[in-house]
């Protein structure tokens, strides 16, 4: 059999297993194991099972995930997050979908500190979503907003993806970081606009606050409001002053949450135990998926499927706009079943020469690529950010509802993407000030 | 029939060991074999995670890899003993030649590779490390108290000896570490000023020669894949690697020269190390490095380590002599020496075939 | 893990002395423990991440068969993983394997966490499969959904 045929058959088999409710990590991992065995030989397939799980977990950048999850679980168990959201609900009563809007803002703030989209989503999945559900927000909206806003993590600097792109494309990382700011803010603004419009057209998505509040309520709420911002501001300023790295920030945030919980006297051993346990199961659940997607990435690379798709879409000698359009199609397709870093590594050797040939400005191009990869994080069936939200919430919202909720955000993202492509100045204005 | 060798190197496409190493080798093989022998190169961790470039080679996931030997000290004990000496070398052409010569011919090294089921084919050496800092670090007084990303335990020990703190951050956090001040300096090859944009954040570079890195291999093949190649393909591979190592090493050094030449445009100041700082490094290298390499050997149960080190030292000295009068930019002349003294002597009907 | 990172941050800033090898210990030991040991627990709580879009629409009897086959497929994969990583851990133990970053670190105990985690998950999946086969009312979703419901 041709390698490509094996690759596509493998993808199909994986999809069938997924739909038959085999857990994602196992479905993708098993298909890749068998696929590599057919492509190469049994020894290589077994070898991949030793090469991937252990080495992948030892990745320092991923240590942020359990720590941010712990921070979120502690904040939620000790009532720190519900306090803030109760207060915000009162303060934002005038705004349709107020809590969802607040969540976008909070994710954007953390994005300015964290370099990773999955870390950003994992931090807020547990803090914000349960509160929105408590106030009868539409489950799709309550989860989709976190999965989608988490993707701001890689667009608003710092950003692990931009560091990688800067390295591969040999452009200044500092300029890329500057270039990401406005597109990140634009994305956040578009999300907010969409939420407000949808919620005012259909108030059932986010039930408006009908109670009347007394001054006393405001005072009680105001007392509740400080704890979570204290944690977030503490984490953010620590990163900006250089006290610790974004990766270490998760641990600091978790420790702060525990200290504040203790100070508020809402921290019990039981709460600590439940947070720890929930962190462990969520982390193990997420990493099982990550191991599966990583194995799939290796299998796809060896079978040549991504290269085939890339070279059949891209032909040298096109115009700039055509190249960008084709790359967009390519990344949206690959984004459905591969992780962002994998896509970038696999396609850059094919894409970069074509982009250079037609003379696309590399910083502008990088921002568009990062935005595309971010969209891939929330598209089914392999949407890592969606899985993160799912893992943090357990069985409370079905995966399908999250994907449905996130589809609105994808639609808005496509508009943002079109704006970014049409107006390079959005990406290039800030970096141009650096010269 | 046409043959394809699959290969993996975890550096990205822009790294000299990829562009002037693997990709150049792939081109050379393609041309000289008339398309009969091709090299399919996977970069980054698209097929194997960095630390798995030995186990993946052993298991035949790919036929050929680059491997940073210090990732797997227990699998490559003798290699790691020699790698501990890295801080004391500062001529990458001599080092590349000496490592190739020694690893291809020394019984202890060959036995180590046989045990792993891999066939060593070619070496590499990085250009010398330098200090890339956010504030000027010229003297002993400057370096005291600085937080420095160091590439090895030996370097970390030296940092401690001059009252600096060695910090270990992954390369992906080097840029932000320097930007936000968790790091005051990074000790790496200065081509990273350009490739990793460090010149945006590290404006003070001190050319203190902190040695070179050569652990593991640039080219090694899975034993089965190597012996399955027909003899003429093995010969072609050996000859191409011989020439490739020279041009690759020249290009690697040039990437540093270019980065340093362009650094001024990015507001970087380049310093020579102060006499006291240089003296502190020199005395550390003279007194501490060999005992530390022997400590590594004890930890990894390497027998006859002192002898191993002196045998390698002899080969290094031999190459210093051989290349003393050769112009380092004259690729053809260097290639002639590599071929005469190393690769021309390999018998492809026997080497690596059990 | 959190404590060690926080202490490292404090040590690095207050004393100017980060913990030697902190990065290696956290990324090798803590992460491996956090990621692999709780796998069985994820299975026990029936919380692995899966897509139930099609499954929900199936008739009950088909559901049971699909579920059972799914558990067996999962058990097979965990079995493969446990077997292979177990062999790797033994090899690592036999040679007292180390890794080198800023310090030397013995890594075989961390490698041992993989077969233990995968093996326990395998047993738990088999237990779930047994229940699914014998108990017609078996619910493949988490038993006690927590908190405010939607
Ligand atoms: Na960010
Ligand atoms: Na996706």
Automatic annotation (TrEMBL), chain A:
Pfam families linked: DctM (PF06808)
Subunit structure: The complex comprises the extracytoplasmic solute receptor protein and the two transmembrane proteins.
Transmembrane stretches, start-end: 7-40, 60-80, 92-113, 141-164, 176-197, 225-244, 321-351, 363-388, 408-430
Topology versus the membrane: Multi-pass membrane protein
Alphabetical UniProt keywords: Cell inner membrane, Cell membrane, Membrane, Transmembrane, Transmembrane helix, Transport
Matching InterPro entries: DctM, TRAP_DctM
Protein name: TRAP transporter large permease protein
Subcellular location: Cell inner membrane
Organism: Pseudooceanicola pacificus
Protein family per UniProt: Belongs to the TRAP transporter large permease family.
GO cellular component, one term: plasma membrane
Every TRAP C4-dicarboxylate transport system permease DctM subunit domain range: 15-425
Role: Part of the tripartite ATP-independent periplasmic (TRAP) transport system.
GO molecular function: transmembrane transporter activity
TrEMBL record, chain C:
Localization, UniProt: Cell inner membrane
Family in the record: Belongs to the TRAP transporter small permease family.
Function: Part of the tripartite ATP-independent periplasmic (TRAP) transport system.
Name of the protein in its database record: TRAP transporter small permease protein
Residue intervals passing through the bilayer: 26-44, 65-83, 103-126
Gene Ontology molecular function, alphabetical: transmembrane transporter activity
Subunit structure: The complex comprises the extracytoplasmic solute receptor protein and the two transmembrane proteins.
Keyword Kinase: no
Annotated GO biological process: C4-dicarboxylate transport
GO cellular component terms, semicolon-separated: plasma membrane
InterPro entries found in the cross-reference section: DctQ (IPR055348), TRAP_DctQ (IPR007387)
Membrane topology: Multi-pass membrane protein
Domain of life according to the entry: Bacteria
Key words of the record: Cell inner membrane, Cell membrane, Membrane, Transmembrane, Transmembrane helix, Transport
Domain Tripartite ATP-independent periplasmic transporters DctQ component span(s) in chain numbering: 1-133
């Amino acid at each position: 059999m041709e390698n490509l045929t094996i690759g596509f058959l493998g993808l199909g088999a994986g999809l069938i297993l997924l739909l038959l409710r085999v857990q994602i990590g196992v479905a993708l991992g098993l298909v890749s194991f068998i696929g590599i065995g057919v492509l190469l030989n049994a020894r290589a397939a077994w070898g991949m099972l030793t090469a991937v799980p252990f080495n992948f977990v030892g990745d320092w950048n991923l240590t942020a995930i359990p720590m941010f999850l712990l921070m979120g679980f502690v904040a939620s168990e000790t009532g720190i997050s519900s306090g803030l959201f109760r207060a915000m609900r009162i303060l934002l009563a005038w705004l349709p979908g107020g809590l969802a809007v607040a969540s976008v803002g909070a994710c954007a703030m953390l994005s300015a500190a964290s370099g990773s989209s999955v870390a950003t989503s994992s931090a807020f999945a547990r803090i914000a979503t349960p509160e929105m559900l408590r106030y009868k927000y539409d489950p799709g909206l309550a989860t989709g907003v976190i999965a989608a806003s988490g993707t701001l993590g890689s667009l608003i600097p710092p950003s692990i993806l931009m560091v990688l792109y800067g390295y591969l494309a040999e452009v200044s990382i500092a300029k890329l970081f500057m270039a990401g700011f406005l597109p990140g803010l634009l994305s956040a603004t578009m999300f907010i606009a969409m939420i407000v419009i949808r919620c005012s057209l259909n108030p059932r998505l986010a039930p408006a606050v009908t109670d009347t509040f007394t001054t006393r309520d405001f005072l009680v709420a105001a007392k509740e409001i400080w704890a979570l911002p204290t944690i977030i501001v503490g984490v953010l300023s620590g990163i900006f002053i250089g006290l610790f790295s974004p990766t270490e920030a998760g641990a600091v945030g978790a420790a702060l949450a525990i200290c504040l919980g203790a100070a508020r006297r809402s921290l019990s051993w039981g709460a600590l135990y439940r947070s720890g346990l929930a962190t462990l199961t969520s982390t193990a659940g997420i990493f099982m998926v990550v191991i599966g997607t990583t194995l799939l990435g290796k299998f796809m690379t060896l079978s040549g499927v991504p290269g085939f798709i890339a070279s059949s879409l891209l032909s040298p000698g096109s115009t700039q706009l055509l190249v960008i359009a084709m790359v967009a199609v390519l990344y949206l397709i690959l984004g459905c079943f591969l992780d962002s870093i994998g896509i970038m590594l696999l396609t850059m050797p094919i894409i970069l020469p074509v982009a250079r040939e037609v003379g696309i400005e590399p910083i502008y191009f990088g921002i568009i690529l990062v935005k595309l990869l971010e969209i891939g994080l929330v598209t089914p069936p392999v949407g890592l950010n969606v899985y993160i939200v799912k893992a943090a919430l357990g069985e409370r919202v079905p995966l399908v509802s999250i994907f449905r909720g996130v589809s609105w955000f994808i639609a808005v993202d496509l508009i943002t993407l079109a704006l970014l492509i049409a107006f390079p100045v959005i990406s290039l204005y800030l970096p141009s000030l650096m010269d | 029939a046409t043959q394809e060798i699959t290969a993996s190197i975890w550096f990205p496409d822009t790294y000299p060991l990829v562009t002037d190493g693997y990709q150049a080798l792939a081109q050379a093989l393609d041309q000289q074999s008339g398309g009969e022998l091709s090299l399919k190169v996977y970069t980054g961790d698209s097929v194997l995670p960095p630390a798995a470039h030995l186990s993946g080679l052993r298991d035949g996931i790919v036929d050929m890899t680059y491997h940073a030997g210090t990732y797997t000290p227990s699998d490559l004990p003798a290699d790691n003993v020699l790698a501990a000496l890295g801080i004391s070398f500062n001529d990458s052409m001599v080092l590349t030649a000496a490592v190739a010569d020694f690893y291809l011919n020394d019984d202890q090294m060959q036995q180590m590779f046989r045990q792993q089921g891999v066939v060593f084919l070619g070496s590499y050496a990085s250009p010398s490390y330098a200090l890339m800092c956010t504030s000027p670090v010229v003297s002993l007084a400057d370096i005291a108290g600085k937080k420095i990303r160091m590439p090895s335990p030996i370097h970390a020990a030296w940092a401690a000896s001059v009252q600096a703190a060695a910090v270990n951050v992954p390369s992906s956090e080097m840029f932000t570490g320097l930007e936000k001040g968790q790091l005051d300096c990074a000790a790496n090859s200065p081509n990273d000023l350009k490739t990793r944009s460090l010149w945006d954040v590290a404006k003070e570079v001190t050319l203190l020669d902190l040695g070179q890195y050569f652990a593991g291999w640039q080219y090694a093949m899975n034993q089965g894949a190597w012996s399955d190649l027909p003899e003429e393909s093995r010969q072609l591979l050996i000859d191409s690697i011989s020439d490739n190592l020279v041009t690759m090493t020249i290009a690697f050094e040039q990437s540093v020269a270019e980065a340093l030449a362009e650094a001024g445009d990015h507001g970087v100041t380049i310093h020579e190390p102060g006499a006291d700082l240089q003296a502190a490094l020199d005395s550390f290298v003279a007194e501490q490095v060999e005992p530390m390499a022997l400590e590594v050997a004890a930890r990894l149960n390497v027998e006859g380590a002192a002898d191993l080190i002196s045998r390698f030292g002899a080969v290094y000295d031999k190459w210093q002599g051989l290349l003393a009068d050769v112009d380092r930019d004259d690729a053809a002349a260097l290639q002639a020496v590599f071929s005469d003294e190393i690769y021309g002597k390999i018998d492809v009907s026997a080497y690596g075939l059990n | 893990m959190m404590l060690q990172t926080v202490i490292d941050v404090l040590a690095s800033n207050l004393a100017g002395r980060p913990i030697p090898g902190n990065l290696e210990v956290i990324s090798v030991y803590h992460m491996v423990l956090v990621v692999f040991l709780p796998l069985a627990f994820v299975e026990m709580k029936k919380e692995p991440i899966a897509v139930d879009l099609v499954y929900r629409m199936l008739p009950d009897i088909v559901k049971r068969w699909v579920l059972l086959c799914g558990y067996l497929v999962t058990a097979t994969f965990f079995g493969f993983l446990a077997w292979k990583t177990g062999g790797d851990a033994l090899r690592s133990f036999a040679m007292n394997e180390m890794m080198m970053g800023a310090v030397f670190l013995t890594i075989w105990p961390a490698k041992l966490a993989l077969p233990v985690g995968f093996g326990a998950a395998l047993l738990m999946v088999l237990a779930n499969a047994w229940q699914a086969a014998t108990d017609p009312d078996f619910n493949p979703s988490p038993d006690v959904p927590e908190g405010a419901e939607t």
